[in-house]
Every structure is written in structure tokens, then in C-alpha cells.
Amino acid sequence: MKQNLSETCHLFFSTLSNPTRLAILELLRNGPRNVSEISEALNQEQSMISHNLKPLERCGFVFSERKKKQRFYSLNKETMEQLFKMFNYHAKKFCPTEGKCLTTRELQEQKKKNASNLLYVNRY
Amino acid sequence: MKQNLSETCHLFFSTLSNPTRLAILELLRNGPRNVSEISEALNQEQSMISHNLKPLERCGFVFSERKKKQRFYSLNKETMEQLFKMFNYHAKKFCPTEGKCLTTRELQEQKKKNASNLLYVNRY
DNA sequence: TCTTCATATGAATATTATTTCATTTGTTAG
DNA sequence: CTAACAAATGAAATAATATTCATATGAAGA
Quick one: how far is CA A117 from the chain centroid? Predict the structure, then answer.
């Protein structure tokens, strides 16, 4: 196995550590979309979507293809479904109870947001 | 499979998207270490190591255990080895050639750093 | 070619994350 | 209890990243 993970993995993970990009990936699980469609679906500016698609494509998380004037982006399902699966397994096994992964205060904030997940909190 | 990946995965991946934290994880592949040992091995301040261990532990990437005055951290091998394996597979398959993942200029910069990897570059 | 639509880019601004340093907390042995 | 060591915390300073807005590029049909 390759050494120097600290360097080699950095872009891989940092590309995935952004809500907009994760939202794009999630959307693309439903099938290919062009930039405008993504933009509308996520209710974000077109330029922002383009900016965020770029690192996703560079890392091989999505593929793209031009069709007439539009460019369609599709998910690299092989990598991404496996990754999401692993994430879910990990979260279930290692962050099973609310108390384990979140402080009480953070938990309450999460509940306000109506999000029942365990891992989306501020870091420190 | 759980919905709302954009929220649920964010902390998971952002915790992994930091060179110091990745270096800690890499070090811990060789076995448990206490904070001072990690600090020395990575040539980083003790407080910085502590700051970075915290999110790693909260996300379940490492475990910790006190032994006398020291606290030893160990890798969650189940998750991490699988994750690193997946990363390597992905990098080999989807970023096989230099041209595909890096611009020429970035490549040169990488070579200067004597790093032969494909994914560690600036994002935009 | 010219116009229109779709996407990409650049650069400034804003936001978020990291690092550092001083200090505190916690543990153990004397 | 106190001293000595180990680790954690807080907050200011710094650095990195994301967002926005204006503009540029590219494709296709008239």
C-alpha cells in the first residue's frame, strides 16, 4: 500500500468535505444532470455549481459529457456508492448513539435543523 | 441508504481532509502512540496534535485509552484500512496518468516536492 | 457570421479552518 | 497535599477555502 497518505489523500477527501459538492453527488445518484439542472435543483448560482463541479471531476468522482450546448455530469458510481456505503456502515457502528458523537448542545441544534444524523457538527 | 449525504457526510470527510490529521492516521497504522510520541514523530506542537486528535476521535477514526499520565491513541483499523484501500483503488483506476488529474504546472510543482502522487494539488 | 443560450473562469470578498501560544485540567508519585 | 509531567482547552492570529458577481468562452441554430 502506498505511503504518505497525508499527502496523497488530501485532495481526495477535501473535495468531499464540502456541503455543496456532497449535495451535487447526492443529486447525481438519481442520474446525470446538466449544470443548469443541478443549479436549479440545489437552488445555487450556476457559477458556484461550475466551480464545485471542477474539483469533483478532477478527482474522478463525476464524469462529464457534452450534449449540444449543455454539459451533463454523471456520478462515478463505482467509487461513490462504495464510499457512501462505507460511511453508513461506519456511522452505524462507531457513532451509534447520540451521546457518543455529539455534545448535548450540538444535538439540540441538530434537532432544530430537523436533521437526524450524527456526524454533521462543527469540528472542535 | 440514508438520504441527505450533503449533511451527514460532511464532518466525516472534512475530518479526513487535513494533512496533519492524515499524518496522524498514517502514523497510527504502526501501532498505538501517546500524544507526545505523535508530537515528536510528526515534529508538531503538542497542542496542535491534541487539537487534531479530537475530531479524529469524535468521528471514530481513532480510539483512545489512558495509561498512567499518558493517553494512547490507536487507529480504527476496520474503517481506515478499508478507506485507504478504496482510495488507492480509485486513484489507480480513475487518475492513472499524470495528465488526467493534474495540469502541467501542478505536476512540475509536485515533482519539485519529490512527491509522486496524483491527487495532492490545489483544488481550483 | 451573428445571436442566443449554456457553461466556465477570474478576482474580490466573505467565510471557515488551522495554527500558535498561554493557560488549565488531570494524573501520578513522593 | 504538592510537585512534576502529560494532555486538553481557549482565544487571537493566520491561512485556506468558498462564494459572489462580472465577464469570457464555447456551441449551435438562424
Answer: 14
Which of B74, B117, B118, B124 to mutate to test binding with chain A, by most A CBs within 10 Å of its CB?
A: B117
Where do the structural domains in chain B lie, given as residue ranges? 5-75, 78-112
Q: What grid cell was written down for A18?
A: 464540502
Q: How many helices (H) and strands (E) does chain B have?
A: 8, 3
B-chain residue closest to A20, CA distance? B6
The mean pLDDT of A116-120, rounded to a whole number, is 37
CATH architecture of the region B5-75: Orthogonal Bundle (1.10)
Backbone φ/ψ region at B106: left (φ over 0), alpha (ψ -120 to 50), beta: alpha
User: According to the model, what pLDDT value does residue A16 have?
Assistant: 96
The C1' atom of D1 and the CA atom of A10 lie apart, in whole Å, by 49
